[in-house]
Amino acid sequence: MSIGLRERKKLKTRAAIQKEAMRLFLEKGFDNTTIEDIAEAVEISPSTFFNYFPSKEEVVFQDDLDPLVLAAFDAQPSHIHPITRLRTAMRTVFTQITPEQDRLMRQRMELFTTTPELRAAMLSQFATLADQIADLLAPRVGKRPNDFAVHNIAGAVLGVLMMALLTIGENPDADMHQVVDRAMAHLEAGLPLEWPPEKTPRQKRR
Amino acid sequence: MSIGLRERKKLKTRAAIQKEAMRLFLEKGFDNTTIEDIAEAVEISPSTFFNYFPSKEEVVFQDDLDPLVLAAFDAQPSHIHPITRLRTAMRTVFTQITPEQDRLMRQRMELFTTTPELRAAMLSQFATLADQIADLLAPRVGKRPNDFAVHNIAGAVLGVLMMALLTIGENPDADMHQVVDRAMAHLEAGLPLEWPPEKTPRQKRR
DNA sequence: TTGATTTTTAGAGTTACTCTATTTTAGAAT
DNA sequence: ATTCTAAAATAGAGTAACTCTAAAAATCAA
How many helices (H) and strands (E) does chain B have? Predict the structure, then answer.
């Protein structure tokens, strides 16, 4: 039964646009790739491109990870501080990431760092995300949706994540999970100037 | 002696563009204002606009406050945690702000919240700022320029400020200084979920 | 097969911005 | 004052990302 031919074709077209566009962006740069180039590569008309994506930028965005993080967040007891919960949640999700997703994320990072335009768009999305996260979080920690503390926490988390992502953009080989977790841990610890803490000597075995 | 007529004229033109552009943006919206509109209002040619600003967006940006904050930061002893120092520095600067500057800042906020495009640009500038601040801060607290902790702190601060600014954008009547200081205080206190702290009963008089 | 509906497409229009070449203007030198 | 030079303003042509409208093509249901 599945879904009709129409839907399947649409999904395929969408995926093809994404794939070809990303390829071209990485090859020639975002700015040097025109909609026409993409349309040509996918063998559609330029008009059709805009049936699938509202703008060139939007092709680069699209995270299926957010819901996963949220689920992992919910899986924890509510008495834990949200930052800790988020950190744990992100760790959980990172370990479940497929190589394909990892590759895509890195490609995005590369584009973000090379094109200011995209960086701006990403950050904007981040801000929106922070707002959403805050509103989503609030009831889960027993607060009203527009609670100040929750929003502020969301802001700090996102700010820290933002820096982490920029760092990754500059060091494409870095272990994303590790960079992000380190940032979250530091935030969790209250952002002390001295960090990491003195390496704890390996647990004494006796 | 002063500076020649040429320079004076240039400054005047620049100021005129800023003023008229802001007026039009606020009146008709950023997107509904074309470069032609601005050029016409200032009585220059559209070409000339681009002699003064590289893009429409850039007209909205321009902060002279950063150096002030930095100076106020430097005026404090270095053993204090940077977040506290920054908070104090910002408080200092906020009290010195002229009504004119205040008005301009609010106008900017309004535009930022109404036009996604501008919001994105602002955030991007924020990220750059965070990086700069981090690099500037590091030596002042005895760290290397790319120190992780310092960058992370800068990220958190900027994230929190970002949320504060968005809040202000939504409540144009809010006291900017107060909103910002509250956010910084919360961050300084380690982002507890319960905030503000129990209102300390007015100092007992006995 | 026919008819309705969705999708694709062509094409025209708008706008931000770039580039080049020309004109205008301010300041300096004679 | 006049003339020269360098800076600034301008016109105009070109590009590319969109938007909108209307027509053509493909899918699906009867």
Answer: 9, 0
